[in-house]
């Protein structure tokens, strides 16, 4: 898949599933397939936390989830691991403030891959943009149980601050987001929401995804009127 332009990227960011095996109560391949049926628009492989797979099992899971994404034309993003992203020819990578800086990632991946960077302030966002980020992940918006070392909860204030500083790079909110609290993030100006537990942790993954899909789709359609 070639790199999307900024308009397409905003569309891909609308409903972004971030997931690894530790987030799933059903086999990850089944969770991803149901989430795609339910309407996710982008996927990040994030195999992290207690019980995360390593070695061959890690690589094989990444490969099988990438294959499912390919079959459904959903871009496949790798969290943190540049070697994995290169080995799989992934569509992009997401890195945070503790990871390899985006300019070094760009030097290795080239221009044709998406680079997402986590930012918690206007200064971090400016640096990420200067380093060549294509999109930002802003959060945690709400309290989360899916990331042990998450920064302080920030609500929508960073998203609002970015807009007030005329920073219009594509971005998603992340952290503790579900169907009943997603709207303020979109109202603040995010292109979409990134979720782990609101999809991967649900008994009925397809139904949970459909709800988020309908909500985000309607919000964006109404915004354009
Ligand atoms: C879309 C998106 N936004 C933010 C993050 C968090 O990245 P990071 O701060 O590097 O933390 P880890 O996910 O690596 O624990 C993300 N993964 N995706
Ligand atoms: C990866 C990440 N980065 C900031 S919060 C978070 C975890 C999001 O998971 P959940 O949607 O379950 O709160
Ligand atoms: Mg990271």
TrEMBL record:
Mg(2+) binds at residues 80, 99. Transmembrane segments: none annotated. One of its GO terms (molecular function) is thiamine-phosphate diphosphorylase activity. Its EC number is 2.5.1.3. Keywords: Magnesium, Metal-binding, Thiamine biosynthesis, Transferase. It comes from the Bacteria. Pathway: Cofactor biosynthesis; thiamine diphosphate biosynthesis; thiamine phosphate from 4-amino-2-methyl-5-diphosphomethylpyrimidine and 4-methyl-5-(2-phosphoethyl)-thiazole: step 1/1. Binds 1 Mg(2+) ion per subunit. One of its GO terms (cellular component) is cytoplasm. One of its GO terms (biological process) is thiamine biosynthetic process. It catalyses: 2-(2-carboxy-4-methylthiazol-5-yl)ethyl phosphate + 4-amino-2-methyl-5-(diphosphooxymethyl)pyrimidine + 2 H(+) = thiamine phosphate + CO2 + diphosphate; 2-[(2R,5Z)-2-carboxy-4-methylthiazol-5(2H)-ylidene]ethyl phosphate + 4-amino-2-methyl-5-(diphosphooxymethyl)pyrimidine + 2 H(+) = thiamine phosphate + CO2 + diphosphate; 4-methyl-5-(2-phosphooxyethyl)-thiazole + 4-amino-2-methyl-5-(diphosphooxymethyl)pyrimidine + H(+) = thiamine phosphate + diphosphate. InterPro entries: Aldolase_TIM, ThiamineP_synth_sf, ThiamineP_synth_TenI, TMP_synthase. The keyword 4Fe-4S does not apply. The keyword Isomerase does not apply. 2-[(2R,5Z)-2-carboxy-4-methylthiazol-5(2H)-ylidene]ethyl phosphate binds at residues 144-146, 176, 196-197. Coiled coil: none annotated. Residues 15-199 form the Thiamine phosphate synthase/TenI domain. Its cofactor is Mg(2+). Signal peptide: none annotated. 4-amino-2-methyl-5-(diphosphooxymethyl)pyrimidine binds at residues 44-48, 79, 118, 147. NCBIfam families: thiE (TIGR00693). Condenses 4-methyl-5-(beta-hydroxyethyl)thiazole monophosphate (THZ-P) and 2-methyl-4-amino-5-hydroxymethyl pyrimidine pyrophosphate (HMP-PP) to form thiamine monophosphate (TMP). Belongs to the thiamine-phosphate synthase family. HAMAP family: TMP_synthase. This is Thiamine-phosphate synthase. It comes from Paenibacillus nuruki.
């Amino acid at each position: 898949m070639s790199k999307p332009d900024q308009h397409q990227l905003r569309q891909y960011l609308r409903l972004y599933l971030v997931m690894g095996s530790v987030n799933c109560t059903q086999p990850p391949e089944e969770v991803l397939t149901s989430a795609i049926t339910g309407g996710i628009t982008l996927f990040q492989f994030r195999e992290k936390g207690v019980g995360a797979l390593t070695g061959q099992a890690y690589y094989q899971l990444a490969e099988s989830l990438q294959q499912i994404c390919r079959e459904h034309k959903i871009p496949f993003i790798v969290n943190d691991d540049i070697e994995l992203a290169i080995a799989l020819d992934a569509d992009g990578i997401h890195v945070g403030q503790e990871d390899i800086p985006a300019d070094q990632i760009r030097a290795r991946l080239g221009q044709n891959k998406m680079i997402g960077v986590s930012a918690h302030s206007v200064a971090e966002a400016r640096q990420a943009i200067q380093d060549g980020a294509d999109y930002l992940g802003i959060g945690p918006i709400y309290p989360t149980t899916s990331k042990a070392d998450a920064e302080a909860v920030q609500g929508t204030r960073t998203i609002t601050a970015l807009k007030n500083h005329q920073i219009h790079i594509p971005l998603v909110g992340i952290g503790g987001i579900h169907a009943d609290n997603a709207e303020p993030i979109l109202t603040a100006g995010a292109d979409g929401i990134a979720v782990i537990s609101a999809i991967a942790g649900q008994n009925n993954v397809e139904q949970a995804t459909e709800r988020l899909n309908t909500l985000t789709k309607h919000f964006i359609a109404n915004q354009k009127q």
